[in-house]
Hints:
The protein is α+β, with helices and mostly antiparallel strands. The protein is 30% helix and 28% strand. The protein has three helices and five strands; from the N terminus they run βαββββαα. A hairpin with a 4-residue loop joins strand 2 (32-36) and strand 3 (41-45). The longest helix is centred in the N-terminal third of the chain and has 15 residues, at 10-24.
Amino acid sequence: MTDYDIDYDPGVIYENLEDFNNNFYENKGALKIEKNSEKQWLKIHTEGEDPLKIKIKFFDVTPEATEEDEEVAKRYRVRFVKQKGDIKEWYEILDSMKKTVFTKEVGDE
Length: 109
């Protein structure tokens, strides 16, 4: 699964990626994280012999408010797409992210 629905701002994902890169990734600081707020995407790059490139796209899937609703919380679908590199390496990194910075408790803050 590379699509996830989240109930918090995409900026939280960016902050969590920076935290992962600086504190949990085996090659601390080796991931290059690029963001484009206007087009609503992030990119993760690695360098080296077999570089990895991942695009993270955000889609607004907030349900429409009904008459009874005063306010509807924003909801986004996050899609991780490997654009270049070893798929096995990407899944190992994603699994590590899920075990560290993308836990349910982190998203609930």
